[in-house]
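Posting this for the archive.
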Amino acid sequence: MLSSAKTQLDTGKASMQIAKKELSNARTEYNTNLKKIEDAKKELQDKESKYNEKLQEFQEKEPEALQEIEENETKLSDSQEKLDKLEHPTYSVNNRREIPGGEGYSIYETVSEIVDSLAKVFPIFLYFVAALVTLTTMTRFVNDERINSGTLKSLGYTNKDVIKKFTIYGLIAGMTGTVIGIILGHTLIPLIVYNAYSVGFTLPKIELHFHLGITVVTILLSLISSVLPARIVATKDLQESTASLLQPKAPKAGTKIFLERIKPIWNRMKFTQKVTARNLFRYKKRMFMTIFGVAGAASILFAGFSVKHSISEINERQFEDIIKYDAIVVSNDDIEQKEQEELQNLLNSEEIKSYSSIYYEEISKETGKNNDKQNIKLIVPENTEQFNEYISLMNRKTEENINLSNDGVVISERLADLLNVKVGDSFSYTDSNDKEHDVTVSGICEMYAGHFMFMSQEEYTNVYGDNFKTNAKLLLLKNNSIKNTEEQVAKFMNLSAVKGVVQNTTLYNQINTIVESLDIIMLVLIIIAALLAIVILYNLTNINVSERIRELCTIKVLGFHNKETTMYIYRETIILSAIGIVVGWVIGILLHDYILTVVPPDEVMFNPTIWIGAYIIPLVTISIVSFVLKYYVNHKLKNVDMLEALKSVD
């Protein structure tokens, strides 16, 4: 019992200790929780205080925030409305010539193509004339050496040895000129073209290269025109006997000409006129050489001056007489009242002389020799009566004004040439939204730079199926200098209401660059042609006098005065030169047409009207040369040793 009670007592004590420990832990946990409650109450009080502060701040700022939200919702609504009105973007693929801002590349390539085009035609004419002179000279040289050739044959030299003499002479003379020409062609001519390019471009330092292919062709052409004629003529002469070669070649016998059969004319002609007529056909070879030699020089002079005039005034004609506006200001589709007022205030400023409302759009058409995309300015005037104050629509050939019709469009002449269309024909184009439209040509207007299309409001509605509305202004400035134009354009570009500005200064500078560079090249060709005219006439006149010196001395012995003797032979030169000039005019017209067809770039048209001075200048130039040579011939005949010329060679 006692043992059992002790055990229970110990168990009770242990339970008590555990209970005390649990009580102590409970008290500790209680105190901790009590502290947490106090901390939570304090945190709650702090948060309530901050809440009350934020609530007060919210209540103070709520009206302003609500107003800002309302304003932004309005802006969002407006923006959404503008977004809904935006059209889907269109994309275009451009090459280097077509890319916006690539005008420099296009002009550079254009000038390069112009030089290439000229290089394909003018060297042919120049070589033809030079070969003609060389052929005549070498033929005359062989004929002059006729007696010497007979002497060499009598001394035992073979025909081959004698021919070798003329061949070597022709080779040396021809190659000397050829080498000089090759050197100048590889140095001077490239420098001239380089300087012509430098007018409108900043170019790297020129590099001079040797062109083997061209050099070989040049040498071959030189041999053909200098060595071959000498060899052929010498071979033909040496077929005669030695005795025949030791005597002067008998003069060509006169024959009855066609003019003699026309008795009413022939019977009224003077003796000297009849002699001149017979001599013209008596020396047929020299007649054709003189005609075509003079014609070659005259045609190059004619083409040079006519082309020079065709390009020299296109800027003035284009931007003074035809296009009178200074800029096109294109507005954005949707502009606010404030933006509209800013634009209107600038339009009413003192710098603006006047303006006219139009519809403007950049359309395109793929055409031309490179099948490039040609940019075309479509203009639809709101007021057709005042439109002539800004753009003059006129037929270049008839000089009649062109009115906009309701059944077709008016296009610029260069565009009509590229499209190969005339009045009444139809063609399609692509608008700025990449949609195709078909139109009929009702008129073709004079225009030298850029492509244009004009249509009436009614035709616009027919083509687009939409009501007409303007989107741009044509501007006339009080001061239309390039500097002031650029300043005024900059003011418009700063306005948010303006979508873009099209000004004429860029196109003017592009055309001016082409004109100035081509002008220098044409000047070089004109100088060369003038020098050729001098060489040709001098050479042919000198040969004519030398060949007929015995005949001229004979008529002097018969009593002809010096001036009469001079005119006896020089009258033929005057007549043949006159015929050559007329033939040169005809060839020059064809050459001028060819240049105006091949040379101009797609967006430029040279004035096809032939300048009257192009007829006069070759006539005056060749007349002056002939007049000077007349005194040379007169001096030579006046001082000729007639005994030496008339003595027998037997």
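Confidence is low (pLDDT under 50) at residues 94-102. The radius of gyration is 47 Å.
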